[in-house]
């Protein structure tokens, strides 16, 4: 059993804040992967059916599938690290005492985080090289009489805002099933079906609004742009998904290092303890 951290100390407060961020990113990444895989499968099935039945196909199917494949691949980096679904050579680790294992976990997690962060920087540099002078975001937007810069925002601030938006969206999406279950439990019979249909319609409407907003930004792009021929999406936007996914992976390994620094137990990620299953299927320290 995991040794709890004192919630009143600085370790507890830091752990609560980082745990909130990790849970939010987990919810967002899971939702992005589910939506991406389902959409990719749906587009592929419809495209194959049209090709066999009518002899024609969706002209944008290949580019949409390519886009979704990049999203699923690199959004899965953080989720794979969080669930420790990566290859880990533990021969030396298993021979060490518990305290030495903690040191080794901190060193390897920090080193892996730095490596992924460097790769994210290189990927971002490549994305910038393909951007040229292309922009899809306006220079600024008006919020309450204040001009908030978007196109000229520093990269660090933009990344922080994107991560915060992802965490907030993840918490919202993680709560939706519980809210839907609580609502349905209060409704009798046929009203549950109506509520479910209304909820589904709202989700579809929200997805259509997001897609429409993105399409409007793409249509109003400025500068010299290299775009995908069928859907018109600037290529640099596709390339920006790569450093974002690598950054999420780096954050997971950094969180693992911090968790090992503030917790008495050993952790492979923020939530996963360093443990094995014994012969009876019970968790035991690794």
TrEMBL record:
Record-level GO cellular component terms: plasma membrane
GO biological process: C4-dicarboxylate transport
Keyword Amino-acid biosynthesis assigned: no
Alphabetically ordered keywords of this record: Cell inner membrane, Cell membrane, Membrane, Transmembrane, Transmembrane helix, Transport
Database matches in Pfam families: DctQ
Family: Belongs to the TRAP transporter small permease family.
Protein name, as recorded: TRAP transporter small permease protein
């Amino acid at each position: 059993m995991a040794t709890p951290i004192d919630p009143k100390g600085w370790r507890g407060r830091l752990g609560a804040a980082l745990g909130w961020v990790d849970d939010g990113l987990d919810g967002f990444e899971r939702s992005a992967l589910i939506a991406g895989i389902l959409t990719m499968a749906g587009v592929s099935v419809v495209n194959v059916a049209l090709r066999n039945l009518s002899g024609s196909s969706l002209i944008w199917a290949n580019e949409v599938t390519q886009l979704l494949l990049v999203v699923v691949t690199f959004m899965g980096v953080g989720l794979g690290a969080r669930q420790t679904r990566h290859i880990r050579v533990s021969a030396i680790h298993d021979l060490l005492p518990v305290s030495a294992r903690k040191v080794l976990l901190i060193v390897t997690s920090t080193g892996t985080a730095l490596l992924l962060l460097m790769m994210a920087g290189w990927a971002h540099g490549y994305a910038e090289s393909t951007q040229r002078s292309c922009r899809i975001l306006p220079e600024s937007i008006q919020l309450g009489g204040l001009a908030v810069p978007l196109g000229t925002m520093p990269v660090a601030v933009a990344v922080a805002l994107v991560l915060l938006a992802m965490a907030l969206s993840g918490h919202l999406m993680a709560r939706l099933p519980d809210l839907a279950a609580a609502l349905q439990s209060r409704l009798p019979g046929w009203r549950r079906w109506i509520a479910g249909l209304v909820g589904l319609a709202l989700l579809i409407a929200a997805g259509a609004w997001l897609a429409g907003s993105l399409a409007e930004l793409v249509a109003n792009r400025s500068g010299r742009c290299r775009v995908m021929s069928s859907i018109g999406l600037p290529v640099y936007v596709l390339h920006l998904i790569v450093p974002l996914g690598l950054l999420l992976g780096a954050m997971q390994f950094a969180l693992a290092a911090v968790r090992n620094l503030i917790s008495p137990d050993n952790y492979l990620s923020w939530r996963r303890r360093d443990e094995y299953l014994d012969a009876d299927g019970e968790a035991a320290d690794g």
